[in-house]
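Predict the assembly for these two chains.
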Amino acid sequence: MTTNDTFDATLSSWLDDKASAPVAREDRERVLEAIVTRQPRPARLASLGSHWISERVSARTRPGGLGMSLPALRIAPALLLLLLLALALLGTAALIGGQLLDGPREPGRLAFELDGSIYLADADGRNPNWVAGSAAAGRYDPAAFFLLRESIWAPDGRHFLYHENAATHISDADGRSVASIAAGTASWSPDSSLVAVWPHSMTFTVDARIRIFNLDGVEVAALPYPTGYVLFRENLGSWAPEGRSVLLQLTRPDVPGDIREVVELPIDGSAPRQVPLDSPLASTDLNVARDGTRIAYSSDGDVFWANSDGSGIRNLDVGFNPVWSPNGAEIAYLHGLGPEGITSYDLRVIDVASGAVRTVVADFKSDPWPNIAWSARSDRLLFTVLGEQDTTSLWSVGANGGAQRLLVKDAPIGAWQWVAEVPIESPPPATTSPAAPPSPASSPAEIPSPTPRSPVPSPSPASSSSTTPFIADVIPAVGALAPGTYTYAKVDRVGVNVRFTVPGGWSWDWDGRSLRKDGVGLPAGAAITFFGGAVQVEVFADPCHWTEGPSAVPTNTIDGVVAALAGQPSRSPTVPTERRASGLIVTDLWPGKMVDLTVPSELDLASCDEGEYRSWSVAGVSRSHEGPGQRDRVWVIDVDGIDATGQSGPGGIIIDASSFPNTSPTVMAEIDAILDSIRLGHWG
Amino acid sequence: MQRDLVNRARTGDREAFSQLAAGAFDQLFRTARLIVRDDDRAADAVQEALLSAWLHIGAVKDPDRFEAWLRRLLVHACYREARRAGRRRVMEIEITPLDAPVGDDVQRATAVRDELDRGFRRLSIDQRAVLVVHHYLGLPDEEAAVVLDIPLGTYKSRLNRATIAMRAALEADSRTPVRTQESVA
């Protein structure tokens, strides 16, 4: 193996050999069967082994009901009663040996997925009502919680999410879809007012944005990754505890070693912040207590809890997937068993005040994504169990162990609704008296608190609102602007909003499209101007003699517009560069190009047509330049796949940052800062 | 044939999808086996990839890209498997150094395979994935980058680094007694 060719050949041959070991027949059959079992099998609702004993079928049942014929509906209860009788006679509890159908009714509802359909039932699994998913003849439109897992119900219990027909649906607590948003892995903000949709690899769509939607389905923000970053493996992200930013697990492809980095992106579009990897916020298993004061998380195989600002860290136990009880007194988590430990777990609960750990369910098997949740009263836990047929079912157990109940057979994912009428007593944040860690956990380890969030000036009166954190920015009015973040909505009515943050001394110009400073133009002013490109962009062949007509270069594409501008005489253009997603301008999603142009220093405006130096016009608005030496950095940006000169749809946008020979370095830095702050998107 | 099956599956024809899944299973499983290095977890990864494919087959706009799309789902499922495994503590295992004298071709071939096996285990899952896509699936660079969901330039540099890492692992293996970290990733 001394040469590359030999090495490659040897490696290829070895991989072939390694891969060619026979595929176990049972593996093949198990997997393919699992696919098949996700087909609609509505008859299961009446089959033996189902927990359901009610024959009541919701009026909301899809056409054809749950697929059960009337006779089946009549027979089902009888069969199930026979089953229960048989179990009683045998003295055998079902599967895990728990009790069935006893105890007080839990408040709230259970949402679960079964055979590609979504159902709502009582918390104990009874009275299932179909919500979504279709089993119409010859067609299978699955609805799923597949991408949601632990973010099905909103924290306030008023809504839940599910997937159907390539969209994520926001449903009210009765199963009525109230809005549809982009498909993808989604999670609720801690205050239940927003849903973040994380980019996902399920499709070929490269959508390197986190999209934030409100309960009306309106996209209120689209946050691109920071420049140069991509998703770190399959990790997605989570909401920061205060619900004003999202936390992303990213990596930089140009840095060797596939190093994980965590970046916090404020949803108001302000600057991203690096999160130290030893911060609790860097965990991929972050769970916020209902009162918002504390978090639980896992890191390097251990479970911790801390105050939501990252202080007061307590190392609890070996485990993962920690979930706070609604009353904030306990944390449930999973403890993997054995050296392989992939599908065998203990379900454990720790009392955070005393540090006492108890195993609620010992050594059970689950699928690779064990699903655990607390009941609204904090007295029971929902968990998933992998059965003998390799199907996963929903079970519940008392928080002290015992009273195990099968909730829904063969339902792989489910979640309990939290209901507000259950009194919640929130203990105060524990900044002192650390809980005694159970063996073999180590001593509490203090790590630096997260850096305080950078203050972003915002004059928005709504900025303090926890329910509308983003969309209420002030739309600039003509005149001086106080330092802050603003939105220029619907630029030239093309449907694109521009958000920017300005320091002091800038104004919104009378033309309704420009930021200006220091006397606007020559010799020392500055301006940033926004043009919507809903109609044809016309680039003049010679800006000084613009009446002679447009450039011969077709300007119906971004490349064409930039090439035509760069081709104007004596403009000293830079080479047009692709600025698809730079930190300077906007978004990874929308491609764009930038060119840096200068008005010839020897120009005599009086020699130009009508005394004006015009470089282009958009929507009938000509871009006239002030005079010699003016520098224009021009970005031409596509929007929604329709280039900057699109004839229909939202079209594109052109941003022109102008400065002049005597513009001060301070103002130049302000221009750059404003450009850095610019975000484009559809919201509001 | 496959194009027809994909089109039918996109309309919800489960039999068509079952045929696609059955036809693709062996190669998917073998690919996953190489990346995650465990048959059970490979089966889990394939199952997850196929489930994802079934749930999202409507996203396949070009039936001719179904296979590439499926491979991409599989690679991501393998990553998820690795992520799950990463939740567990790393354990150290003793591996007996292979310093026995090589007697004949068979022994030598065995020794090389063992070296490769150990070297491969030492790679990160990203590095294993890129080597599998390149050397086992033999995909062109452009398609390999799509399957791995990374830019072409990143793919090339990652392949280069993985090759170097593999060589380094083999050289280290041949020089020193081995005590390696095994994360079952």
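Chain B has eight helices and two strands. The CA atoms of residues 122 and 159 of chain B lie 15 Å apart.
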